[in-house]
Task: structure prediction
Amino acid sequence: METVRFRHAHFSARFPVDCLYTPSHFWMRPADGAASQAVAEAANNLAGCDMPRLWQVGFTKFATRMLGELVEMVLEVKPGQFVAGGERLGTVEGFKAVSDLFCVLDGTLSATNPALTAEACLTHSDPYGAGWLYAVDGTPTPGHLDVHGYIALLTTTIDQLQSSRYSDGESDGEDHAASEPAASAESEPGDTA
Result:
């Protein structure tokens, strides 16, 4: 898998180039593996592009760092139901936070990852492979980014977090950002991937 390495402040990770990313720290990739052309077309927002219809979705490494290892995922939407971008699908609970889980595509929920029932920690140990969360037969919602756009967003996000942390005068030694939702851009950066 081709990746781009990112390192900024105390966070580093590798991000696959065959994924699209959302500002809410999810990745999505065509489930059939024929990603490169479809991802390139979708990233460029070409009208009438012939994108694959089935997409897998998961948390980025940044999101898993904020959430910690996944303990439980509870979906309130069942496979076969229509879902829309921005719709709440359920909740995820990690060691560090509980967060709402949102949809990043418009279409029909196709599946949830059955492997997470037995090994929820796959979202942390293999976030871009076996740790995917759900699959949707549909199209990505507007606002998705290619890997370079996502890295630019992360740089800005981490800079803002550091700036606000130090300007707030936090001197009590507590890590307030660790309790923020995993898929929120308001979480403190972690360390290595």
Observations:
- Helices lie at 35-43, 61-67, 115-118, 122-125, 147-167.
